[in-house]
Amino acid sequence: MHAWVIWLIAAGILLVLEMMTLTFYLLWISVGAGAAALVAWIAPDAFLLQVITGCVIALVLTAFTKPLAKRLRASKGYEDAGTELVGKQGVVVEAIEPGQYGIVKIGGDTWSATSTQQIGKDELVRVMKRGSSIIEVERWEEFI
């Protein structure tokens, strides 16, 4: 198998993982792997150049976009899509044990969820807090 194919597969896997985490860190590494695939296609024997290109691209994108993202979040009128989840009702799809993750369905989306209490399958929950891809929930009855 050619090196550019391996880099391209790595870029695709990282892109899919990025879509699941929504952090942008894996996106930049994916773009770096894509750049390494391009270098591998042009210069197949220059493995070190491929690795360096991928690393430099990922580091530069991370370094330059982090301040831009911070400025965007601080700008007037910006609303984080994740904050609208707080207070919504969801249904537990996979039971939540304290200290372990379960799965909660809110609307049409499913989220990994934690709680300080044991919550069984099919119970209603309220979203208390949202991290990057994990939400913190409490049993719904406690708020009624």
TrEMBL record:
Keywords noted in UniProt: Membrane, Transmembrane, Transmembrane helix
Protein's UniProt name: NfeD family protein
Pfam families in alphabetical order: NfeD
Organism: Paenibacillus woosongensis
Topology class, membrane: Multi-pass membrane protein
InterPro entries in alphabetical order: Membrane_assoc_protease, NA-bd_OB-fold, NfeD-like_C
One Gene Ontology term, aspect cellular component: plasma membrane
Subcellular location per the Swiss-Prot or TrEMBL entry: Membrane
Annotated transmembrane regions: 7-40, 46-64
Domain NfeD-like C-terminal: 84-139
Main location: membrane
